[in-house]
Specification:
- 2 copies of one chain form a homodimer.
- The first copy, chain A, is an alpha/beta fold.
- Chain A folds into 3 domains: 2-14 and 228-357, Rossmann fold; 22-223, Nitrogenase molybdenum iron protein domain (Rossmann fold); 390-418, no CATH class.
- Chain A is 44% helix and 16% strand.
- Chain A has helices spanning 22-38, 40-51, 62-71, 74-92, 131-144, 163-172, 182-191, 208-217, 242-253, 268-282, 288-298, 307-317, 330-333, 350-355, 391-407, 411-418; strands spanning 2-5, 99-102, 108-115, 118-122, 148-153, 176-179, 201-203, 222-223, 231-236, 260-265, 300-303, 321-325, 341-344, 381-388.
- In chain A, strands 1-11-10-9-12-13 form a 6-stranded parallel sheet, with helices on both faces. In chain A, strands 6-5-4-7-8 form a 5-stranded parallel sheet, with helices on both faces.
- In chain A, strand 7 (201-203), helix 8 and strand 8 form a beta-alpha-beta unit.
- The relative contact order of chain A is 0.15.
- Chains A and B meet through helix 4, strand 3, helix 8, helix 9 and strand 13 of A and helix 4, strand 3, helix 8, helix 9 and strand 13 of B.
Chain lengths: 422, 422
């Protein structure tokens, strides 16, 4: 990792919009059109083509789910349950009430909160089949009160889904599970097929084809943010332990050669020790090649003279994950403006949040923490305004409303008001 | 308007995603590339080409704003101020606190709420220059605490913006105003130019070029939903007055030939009287041609046998605006699942909400009320999770976390946790 003494350069994680190649865009367009036109048949045919699985039905059966439980050891199942409970409990605190506000003149204005009817959750397959990701995407929908939660994931060549994914889906309260991946799965969720009833919103990470398909159906259904490669920024003073800092940086780097791990510290000693530790720990990692590539390409250590400078850098980077490893981490908290999740102190290592603590691990990447939030209960409800105007308020304000309407050239608006005055 | 006795057909306002023609898409792509490459120069050149205005600077001066005040009558200014105050007051009730939750073992989990740094508001020009729209888009950002609010709108041939827009912008607390429209304005807000510092989110309605440009920059910045044509559904029983119902339907129809006005009623008498009234009132409207086209193409009256059927239709349509004109409108409220704004009773005619009551008039269109909300304060803040795990909680759960990490094949995650156990 390169150590950089911080200058006044403007830093940014913000890269470009992932829009794929012309060929990928065209492929996704064709897949969506085929699924719209041919339904299940198209999805089954793409599943054979891309996943190598010959299926007769897209739907996962109760038997398959029961079978999945038998393939996992009991301890793991009970850990999944405990994680699910923690995630549920945290997200429950995000729930909001509908409210109404009363004016003495009799007018009532308010906001009604209603869960979405149905949501689709995409779960990547292959080596990236993560039960934790299932829990994190499904539980907020469950807490929100979504009745129908459809999960879809690409099968392996034998036509099976990962048992961990199936168990997590069942524990999280998914109501239906499908074997479909890629753009064809997104199209099926958005437009529906004979087997899959269309949903109102699609969440969950995926490869470039999934991302392009989500972008293409956005508007017909809602989508979550399109996730980029993962990143961590660690803010440390001289109290931080280099071996722990290095281990946390590497836990990010092992995800993806495109992942970014950055240390920002006021201590040149910590910087140098972390640099050494990263090199040392890297050697024995099973995913050494991935992590090494990530560290080499995107890993950086910024050394600043003051904590203010360090915090400024953090805000410019707007990281997905931020660990604060300083003597008094709470002191920085008020100054952090942009970060997906903030981990305070050495016992809040990122994996604690990735798996278990309760807050969501679906977080804004690529500097989008400037304007995006962790996946949360609000993503699975919508609001409706309530307007109950009293006669008194109406009569007092009718003339003002008609004047504004007429200034905007909308005569019928003015007359709608005046029809009540007759 | 056609009267339809309701069958069991599945109704939907959901049309297709507005994706423009190939030519429009290409034009937008080119414009964005040019603005990225050439900045102000490209924006100025497109402004000459599309708006016919030769500008030397994009920025509206303080003089121009003061001049706008002189062009509006004082009464109108004071109405704009009162509307702004009402909108501010309603949206203030949407504000949420950051929160933190304490566990007895010392763990603290929470959610920090932070306003976005900077937001861009697009305001259409020409005949559709609406001060009310400025207030509705800007006030929630103001309430949220956004420091920089940049408004942009296409100038007329003389290089001027509408005085109503300028006054509303100033009253709402916009911090900078630019003369730029179309895709070039969206590109300038997203990528920045010499004059315009890039923003984090872009809101506001626009034509197809604006919509395509917003879709193209989505991800680099956040955007609000892409607005479609406006719609109203009125739910009425035999207590509704036909002339008021008709006037409200027409106030929607005058917006746009693509606007949709639908009456759902349990009363055939009301249905027939409204049909007659719409025809009659239409004759004398200044925007008669637009409204007639809208009514002819999209206007419908559904007559149902029961109120339950009527409510089911409303939920299937998921309208942007819903007026409930029944004897006891509150009784239906619990059953309405999908609607952008719900207007209760005859004194809550839609224009009351469009202009004055306080709730936002930027609402989900085209059936997207199934999953989208009125523009609100949440759209201008983001959340960050806070995770402060205690030593006690960490030691109690470390093994579970490492087991999950290893099941997912993420060894470095497990080792990050274990580095704290040494």
């Amino acid at each position: 990792m390169k150590i950089i003494k911080v200058s006044d350069e403007k830093l940014s994680l913000r890269r470009t919009i992932e829009s794929g190649t012309e060929k990928q865009q065209q492929a996704v367009k064709t897949i969506i059109e085929q699924v719209k036109a041919l339904g299940d048949q198209a999805v089954l045919s793409y599943t054979k083509q891309f996943d190598g699985a010959e299926l007769t039905s897209l739907k996962v059966t109760q038997d398959e789910i029961e079978n999945a439980y038998e393939q996992l050891d009991d301890e793991l199942i009970s850990i999944i349950r405990e994680a699910a409970k923690n995630i549920y409990n945290f997200h429950e605190k995000q729930k909001r009430n509908s409210w109404i506000d009363f004016d003495e003149n009799g007018t009532m204005l308010g906001q009604k909160i209603t869960p979405l009817d149905c949501v689709g959750v995409y779960v990547p397959g292959g080596t990236a089949a993560y039960p934790s990701s299932v829990l994190m995407n499904v539980m907020p929908a469950k807490v929100a009160g979504v009745q129908r939660i459809a999960l879809t994931s690409p099968p392996n060549e034998k036509g099976e889904l990962s048992p961990g994914v199936l168990v997590a889906a069942n524990e999280a309260g998914v109501t239906e599970v499908y074997k479909a991946g890629g753009a064809q799965a997104i199209a099926a969720l958005a437009y529906g097929t004979e087997t899959i009833t269309p949903v109102d919103k699609i969440v969950g990470p995926g490869n470039i084809y999934v991302a392009l398909a989500k972008r293409a159906v956005f508007g017909l259904v809602d989508i979550d943010m399109i996730a980029g490669p993962s990143e961590i920024v660690i803010l440390a003073d001289d109290s931080a332990r280099a071996n722990e800092v290095a281990a946390d940086l590497l836990s990010q780097a092992e995800h993806d050669p495109m992942a970014t791990s950055i240390l920002v510290t006021t201590s040149i000693v910590v910087a140098e020790n972390v640099q050494r530790e990263v090199k040392r720990q890297l050697q024995s990692l099973p995913r050494k090649n991935i992590a090494a590539l990530s560290i080499e390409q995107y890993g950086k250590i910024y050394v600043t003279e003051t904590m203010e400078q360090a915090v400024r850098i953090v805000n410019e980077l707007a990281p997905e994950h931020l660990e604060i490893l300083t003597e008094h981490p709470e002191e920085c908290l008020a100054k952090i403006k942009h970060a997906g999740a903030i981990f305070l102190g050495r016992y809040s290592s990122e994996p604690v949040g990735d798996y278990f603590a309760g807050p969501n691990h679906v977080l804004p990447t690529n500097g989008t923490a400037r304007f995006s939030s962790p996946l949360n209960v609000d993503d699975f409800v919508k609001k409706s305004s309530i307007i109950s105007y009293s006669k008194e308020a109406f009569l007092a304000n009718a003339e003002k409303i008609t004047k504004l309407a007429r200034y905007e050239g909308l005569e019928a608006h003015a007359r709608a008001v005046e029809s009540r005055l007759k």
